[in-house]
């Protein structure tokens, strides 16, 4: 059942992506979580191709750190093929698993997503701030971008900007919303000013 739901989510995301273009603008990238069962499939890349087709270059696959480490050699191969399709790959919840730093350098990924558990207290906890700062430096030194999850306050967003975090997401900007709300939001051109 989960495989069917996963295929449906990918196909539906591809449909929604086409609707997100506003006034002829390019639609934003869409991130889709990958389950352990999906990644274990021998035809994982074929399933991605069937579900996304020509839309693949507008998508990011998010795979948790612990999941990608389960069968590292096989997953490196699968993720390399996904990248060749035009997909970007992010290691989700980074910092919560037990990855070896030598494997992080070998993974064919574009981004590390810092788990919200480090973001929530980083303005009050020097250990969390050090971890966030170190993950950002590590990712950049490996040519990866960094995404912070769970940003809820302006103070967190400003600090992440100072630390050179590439992207931030969380309730400060918006909770999860249905596709039609995303289209309206994009067409209105709303932005949050972190400089003022």
Describe the structure.
The chain has 196 residues and is α/β, with parallel strands linked by helices. It has a single domain, classed as Alpha-Beta Barrel (TIM Barrel), CATH 3.20.20. The protein has a six-stranded parallel β-sheet with strand order 1-2-3-4-5-6. Helix 1 (2-19) packs parallel to helix 3 (44-52). It has helices at residues 2-19, 36-40, 44-52, 65-70, 72-84, 101-106, 116-119, 126-141, 154-162, 179-188, and strands spanning 30-33, 59-64, 88-94, 111-114, 145-148, 167-168. The model has no long low-confidence stretch (mean pLDDT 88). It is globular, with a radius of gyration of 17 Å.
For the largest beta sheet, what order do the strands appear in spatially? 1-2-3-4-5-6
Q: Look at the structure and give the CATH class.
A: Alpha Beta
The rounded distance between the terminal residues' Cα atoms is 48 Å
Give a count of the beta strands, DSSP E runs of length 2 or more: 6
Largest sheet: 6 strands, parallel
* Average residue-wise pLDDT: 88
- The percent range for helix content is 40-55%
Q: Which homologous superfamily in CATH is the superfamily?
A: EAL domain
Count helical runs: 10
Shape: globular
Question: Hey, roughly how much beta strand do the residues contain?
Answer: 5-15%
CATH architecture field: Alpha-Beta Barrel
Q: What is the count of distinct domains?
A: 1
Calculate Rg over CA atoms.
17 Å
Class of secondary structure makeup:
alpha/beta
């Amino acid at each position: 059942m989960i495989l069917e739901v996963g295929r449906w989510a990918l196909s539906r995301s591809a449909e929604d992506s086409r609707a997100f273009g506003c006034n002829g603008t390019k639609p934003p990238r869409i991130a889709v979580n990958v389950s352990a069962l999906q990644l274990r499939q021998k035809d994982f890349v074929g399933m991605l191709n069937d579900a996304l087709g020509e839309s693949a270059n507008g998508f990011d696959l998010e795979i948790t750190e612990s999941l990608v480490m389960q069968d590292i050699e096989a997953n490196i191969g699968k993720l390399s093929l996904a990248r060749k399709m035009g997909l970007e790959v992010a290691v989700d919840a980074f910092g919560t698993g037990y990855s070896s730093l030598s494997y992080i350098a070998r993974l064919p990924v574009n981004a590390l997503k810092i788990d919200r558990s480090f973001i929530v207290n980083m303005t009050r906890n020097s250990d969390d701030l050090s971890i966030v700062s170190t993950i950002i430096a590590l990712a950049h030194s490996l040519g990866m971008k960094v995404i912070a999850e769970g940003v809820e306050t302006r103070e967190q967003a400003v600090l992440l900007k100072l630390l050179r975090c590439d992207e931030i997401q969380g309730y400060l900007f918006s909770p999860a919303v249905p596709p039609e709300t995303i289209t309206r939001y994009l067409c209105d051109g709303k932005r949050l000013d972190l400089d003022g």
